[in-house]
Design brief:
Order of helices and strands: HEHEEE
Radius of gyration: 14 Å
Pfam family, one: THAP
Structural class: alpha+beta
Protein name: THAP-type domain-containing protein
Strand order of the largest sheet: 1-2
InterPro entries: THAP_Znf, THAP_Znf_sf
Number of helices: 2
GO molecular function, one term: DNA binding
Strand content: 5-15%
Number of strands: 4
Keywords: DNA-binding, Metal-binding, Zinc, Zinc-finger
Length: 96
């Protein structure tokens, strides 16, 4: 069964077609602290990632990836930061 991206309103699924378009999928980190940061970044109330939860490459910056090998990997400690949140989930006045 295809895996769905866990991000709010993202319709990307792990399929042959998405792979052909260059979309990669990345499991949530096993490290509990980093996994929690990913969950918070999603802004999905009550969401807890499972061992099979994934995010697609659309939610990361280009510099977040290590493309030196045959497999596209995320760099250590990277937090997803590219989202299109609806108005009620946007944070106003918060700077990084």
């Amino acid at each position: 069964m295809p895996e769905h991206c866990a991000a709010f309103s993202c319709s990307n699924r792990r399929t042959i077609a998405s792979r052909a378009r260059g979309i990669t999928f990345h499991k949530f980190p096993k490290d509990k602290d980093v996994r929690k940061k990913w969950e918070v970044a999603l802004r999905r109330e009550g969401f807890h990632a499972s061992d099979t939860s994934v995010l697609c490459s659309h939610h990361f910056n280009q510099g977040d990836f290590d493309r030196t090998g045959q497999i596209v990997r995320l760099r250590d400690g990277v937090i997803p930061s590219v989202f299109s949140f609806p108005v009620h989930l946007q944070r106003v006045g918060v700077s990084s």
